[in-house]
Specification:
Length: 413
């Protein structure tokens, strides 16, 4: 009885105390990820279905990431100037249109151009979503809120990855159309249920940097913040290999789309199972050791792919680097929120999410080229080295007491 009561109290504490608007944003995120087929299966679609080389598939995925980089920066500025809600709506409708067109494209140049536009539209929603979430949720609950949102992302991803592997065996076109329809549904939810949360001038922080003074140059000169962004870039370079290099390596080893769907679904399943209890454990702990641990787990997980020769072994490697992702995500996102001034949240989130888009651009080029020239084992051993390098970077940077970082609602010096 006491065990049941404890579990009930834990569930109540996890899901209570968050505003209703947060849960509509959470629902929109879940719907979006239920249809996130294209970025996961784009490389496999181009090589298996269309017959293009790994290098071309890597180039297209890189253009998708390059478009995302531009989308993050533009959307970060628009999120602060126009508002969170209109930026989010425009991004979602543009994503639905470009993804649908990509499914019908047949010429290599058309595919490449539409991939870049789709990447731009998709990534443009991230600064708006994260700024809105930071606006809605008090600082003391943000780690939990970011963890719950990340949980929704991966709950949707786990389901979509498994379903997409089966759908792709019959028609890749339905992957594109399905993502377009579900993204349009997200826009409907945003339009009818999400409020505008952009703070007015009265809520802007005091000090020498008044409301509206934050620019992209201000963000880039913030050494503390940009250090976090740089280290995050190293780790995201590895996570992107799970979407591009891993399916390419498995395809060359004789595995099919269903095998890859099962393997990559382990990422979402594990996050769904462990993200909430792990977050409750790490919520009030020092971020330094957590970030070092996450980097090591990520590097080791991808390094083990050099030894993988079966679906269960590949699933094991995904489980290892996913544990690193589970620890890293809420820890780092809450830190970024604390480092972002109120009137510049869109720009700060835009630059932070830019690291994901830069990785989406660079990682496929690197992964595809290394696999073509040196083979997959060389890429996985290099990934291990990157993980260790990121861990050393976090160990060095986090010697400073980051827990004393100012709240985003306080003046920054």
């Amino acid at each position: 009885m006491s065990t049941t009561a404890t579990a009930t109290r834990a569930v109540r504490n996890t899901f209570s105390g968050l505003p209703a608007a947060f849960w509509w944003l959470w629902a929109s995120t879940l719907i979006n990820r239920l249809g996130a087929f294209v970025s996961t299966f784009l490389a496999l679609y181009l090589t298996v279905q269309k017959g293009y080389s790994a290098s071309y598939a890597g180039m297209v995925a890189a253009l998708y990431g390059l478009g995302g980089a531009a989308g993050n920066l533009v959307a970060g500025v628009l999120t602060d100037r126009l508002g969170r809600r209109p930026t989010l709506l425009a991004s979602q409708m543009a994503t639905a249109g470009t993804v649908a067109l990509l499914g019908f494209a047949s010429r290599p140049t058309t595919i490449a151009a539409l991939a870049a536009l789709a990447g731009m539209a998709t990534s443009a929603s991230r600064p708006a979503v994260q700024a809105m979430m930071t606006d809605l949720v008090p600082e003391r609950r943000r780690v939990r809120a970011f963890a719950l949102n990340y949980w929704a992302i991966n709950l949707g991803f786990a389901l979509s990855a498994s379903a997409a592997g089966l759908i792709a065996r019959y028609s890749y076109l339905w992957l594109f159309l399905g993502e377009a329809l579900l993204t349009a549904l997200c826009a409907v939810v945003a339009y009818f249920r999400l409020p505008e949360t952009r703070p007015g001038p009265a809520r802007a922080r005091p000090g020498p940097d008044p409301a509206g003074a934050t620019s992209l140059w201000t963000v880039l000169r913030d050494v503390r913040f940009m250090t976090v962004v740089g280290l995050n870039l190293l780790l995201v370079m590895l996570y992107q290999q799970g979407l591009v290099a891993l399916p390419l390596a498995m395809g060359r080893a004789g595995f099919d789309s269903t095998d890859f769907g099962v393997v990559i679904a382990a990422n979402g399943v594990l996050i769904v199972a462990l993200q909430i209890p792990v977050t409750r454990f790490i919520e009030h702990r020092s971020p330094g050791p957590l970030l070092v641990l996450s980097a090591l787990l990520t590097g080791v997980g991808f390094g083990l792919c050099a030894l993988a020769d079966s679906v269960p072994f590949y699933v094991l490697t995904v489980c290892v680097w996913t544990l690193g992702e589970i620890v890293n995500s809420p820890t780092q996102m809450s830190l970024v929120a604390r480092l972002s001034p109120v009137e510049g949240r869109g720009r700060y989130q835009g630059v932070y999410t830019l690291s994901w888009s830069v990785a989406a651009f660079a990682a496929p080029l690197l992964g595809g080229s290394v696999i073509d020239r040196f083979g997959a084992p060389a890429l996985w051993l290099g990934s291990l080295a990157v993980g260790v390098l990121a861990a050393l970077g976090y160990a060095h940077v986090m010697r400073r007491p980051w827990e004393t970082a100012p709240s985003p609602d306080c003046a920054r010096t």
